[in-house]
Automatic annotation (TrEMBL):
One of its GO terms (molecular function) is oxidoreductase activity. Residues 73-173 form the Outer membrane cytochrome MtrC/MtrF-like domain. The keyword Signal applies. Residues 179-213, 221-263, 270-308 form the Doubled CXXCH motif domain. It comes from Pseudoxanthomonas spadix (strain BD-a59). Keywords: Signal. Residues 1-23 form the signal peptide. It comes from the Bacteria. This is Cytochrome C family protein.
Length: 354
């Protein structure tokens, strides 16, 4: 027993000595490797004196190509540079510092001192600097400083043309004299993305579309108040080929983006469903079940009156709480039997029973 204890003690000492020897042999190479890694990893601080050298690029894509915006109301004005602008607009500059535009423009300015920053959006500022109260001397993104809406939007589209904004000209928002600054605030980071004028896209849209926003307070509604979707999931506010600014060509195609099971094709089609989802549903909110425009069976009887069912037209009196309840209107009404109302692929489903 005593020999066994001595043997175990010796083995533990040998193992400890071996571990120390291995650690001493590995430590120098690990330390040198860490030092090399520290040398290779660049700083990510945008406030460095030379961010171009820190990040390893000579040009900043996009922002270094920014040109001084054209202001038709001040054709003789000349650029004065960012330092002149911030000398007076210190508060605006402080708010602007935290925005996406500021990060890109500051990096571009450090890489190329000739890059336009403030004047890339506001136009040349010499006349404004000489007479700040002169309306139109600078491109102002407000309604009361003399800059036409067309000039304001052209300044933004100088960089943001194309893509989702291809249909801006002629869109309902453009025809109603909306400016980019009515929905966006590039001078402050108020929203998580998109430089919105409000904290979210939905709040921004509700600034004008208060009637639509109220529909989402109804019993049955799209999950917009819960934050599970946004107005831009269905609409493109910058313009589309449709009057309601839908992101697709038709209402049905827009609905199918989420409700793909309703697309079909079906062996037995339901004509009003194939024609337009809005024949039966309202897209934003309803006090009826499943966003219906009217309660079942009144909704069905707008088309199916005195057909195959010999009774007279159903009314509220035939509902379960009426004076003469009818068993065919209880539960889910017509849909209790005609369950596949959007269409059926069952050979026995011409009446949408299966």
């Amino acid at each position: 027993m005593e020999r066994m204890r001595r043997f175990m003690l010796v083995m533990m000492c040998v193992a400890a000595a071996g571990a120390l020897a291995i650690a001493a042999w590995v430590a120098p190479s690990s330390a040198s490797g860490m030092d090399q890694a520290r040398v290779k990893l660049p700083s990510t601080h945008f406030g460095a004196e030379n961010p171009a050298a820190v990040h390893g690029f000579s040009q900043v894509t996009g922002f270094d190509q920014a040109k001084v915006a054209v202001n038709p109301q001040a054709p003789d004005a000349t650029p004065v540079g960012q330092a002149t602008c911030t000398a007076c607009h210190a508060k605006e500059n402080q708010n602007f510092t935290h925005t996406t535009h500021a990060l890109g423009m500051n990096a571009a300015l450090a890489a190329n001192p000739a890059t336009a920053t403030c004047e890339a959006c506001h136009g040349p500022g010499s006349q404004h600097a000489q007479n700040p109260s002169l309306e139109g001397a600078i491109i102002a993104f407000t309604k009361d400083r003399g800059t036409p809406i067309k000039t304001q939007t052209e300044s933004c589209l100088g960089c943001h043309a194309g893509g989702p904004r291809d249909q801006w000209l002629g869109s309902i928002h453009q025809r109603n004299q909306l400016s980019c600054s009515d929905c966006h605030n590039p001078m402050a980071q108020l929203s998580a993305e998109g430089l919105e004028a409000k904290q979210s896209i939905n709040e921004t849209c509700a600034t004008c579309h208060k009637d639509i926003r109220q529909q989402f307070n109804r019993r049955s509604h799209m999950p917009l108040p819960e934050g599970q979707m946004a107005c831009v999931d269905c609409h493109n506010p910058h313009g589309t080929i449709s009057a309601s600014l839908l992101k697709t060509d038709t209402v049905n195609e827009t609905c199918y983006q989420c409700h793909a099971e309703k697309r079909g094709p079906f062996l037995f089609e339901h004509a009003p469903v194939r024609e337009n989802c809005l024949n039966c549903h309202t897209p934003h909110g309803s006090n009826q079940h499943a966003l219906l425009v009217a309660p079942v069976p009144m909704l069905c009887q707008q088309c199916h009156s005195h057909t195959r069912h010999p009774n007279d037209m159903f009314s509220e009196q035939q509902l379960a709480t009426g004076m003469a309840p009818d068993e065919r209107l209880m539960g889910r009404g017509c849909v209790t039997c005609h369950a596949q109302v959007h269409g059926s692929n069952n050979p026995a489903g011409p009446r949408f029973h299966k």
